[in-house]
Design a protein that fits this description.
Elements (H helix, E strand, L loop, with lengths): L2 H19 L5 H17 L1 H8 L5 H11 L5 H12 L6 H21 L3 H17 L1 H8 L5 H12 L5 H12 L6 H15 L3 E7 L5 H15 L3 E7 L7 E5 L2 E4 L2 H13 L1
Parallel strand pairs: 1-2
Antiparallel strand pairs: 1-3, 3-4
Helix pairs in contact: 1-5, 1-6, 2-6, 2-10, 4-5, 5-6, 6-11, 7-8, 7-11, 9-10, 10-11
């Protein structure tokens, strides 16, 4: 998303954020309605064009939104209307921004309820499970399967075992991937949750679990290096043998024994 679309999205979501934060336990319901609106736009090109037509009067768009979504919560109708009245460089950007609003209300409500750190940790654990269990990843990310079937698999695996916000976030990515790959979508959610807590995400792969003191020291070292508070997420992989692999954004420092052996082999060969 670029230019006018990005400005429109950011402006509306900035106003919506305190509303989302105040939603508390209603956040999951509001997000469900926002996601339902996204699905309606994705199904109907004519509706999408009607709501993004720059020649159409803003009041007409508001009337259309209020008519189509009259059964929705007034807070949801307002943010849909505000987004519809904005100027979009691409019609699909309206749907994407509504999708983002659904994620915002889930994370904001979790933060207001004091469970955002738990949601972030659970999302990371879901990501790790998808990496470790390729059969599960295939079942949840199979575009050829019906959405209801994929969500049914997720329900059997995850429902009742994580916070309701965590489940709602992952279920949305499973049921309506909107062109995104599931693993990347969940990784994006981890980063969004951390960003809301004003943290950068550090992904660490180690042969054994790090202690709390080790995580704290690593976070302190990286904060000095990057000038930003860090959320250290550790994945245990016995195959690395020893050492740790650290990734911050696109930067990777691989100090594992496996990496050193691979480097030694490359030097011997060539």
């Amino acid at each position: 998303m670029r230019g006018s679309s990005q400005l429109a999205r950011d402006g509306v979501l900035r106003v919506f954020d305190p509303v989302a934060s105040a939603s508390g336990k209603e956040g999951v319901r509001l997000a469900d309605e926002l996601f339902s609106a996204v699905d309606a736009l994705d199904r109907s090109g004519s509706l999408r064009r009607a709501l993004t037509d720059p020649a159409r009067d803003a009041s007409d768009k508001t009337d259309l939104v209020e008519s189509l979504f009259s059964k929705y919560d007034p807070r949801v109708v307002t943010v849909i209307s505000d987004l519809a009245k904005a100027r979009w460089g691409n019609g699909n950007d309206l749907s994407t921004s509504l999708e983002d609003a659904g994620v915002v209300v889930l994370l904001a409500s979790a933060q207001s309820l004091g469970v955002l750190a738990t949601v972030e940790e659970e999302l990371f654990l879901v990501e790790r499970e998808l990496v470790a269990n390729r059969n599960l990843l295939s079942a949840l990310g199979d575009r050829a399967a019906l959405a209801e079937g994929r969500v049914g698999v997720l329900h059997d695996v995850l429902f009742g075992k994580v916070n309701a916000v965590t489940y709602a976030l992952v279920a949305r990515k499973v049921g309506a991937p909107r062109g995104a790959r599931l693993l990347g979508a969940v990784q994006g959610l981890v980063k969004e949750a951390a960003a809301r807590r004003e943290l950068m995400v550090v992904s660490v792969t180690a042969a054994v679990e790090l202690s709390s003191d080790q995580k704290t020291r690593l976070a302190s070292i990286l904060k000095d290096a990057y000038g930003h508070d860090m959320q250290v997420n550790v994945a245990v992989d016995p195959d690395v043998l020893g050492g740790i692999k650290i990734q911050v954004g696109s930067e990777v420092v691989d100090g594992t024994i496996v990496a050193r052996l691979a480097d030694a082999r490359r030097r011997l060969v060539g």
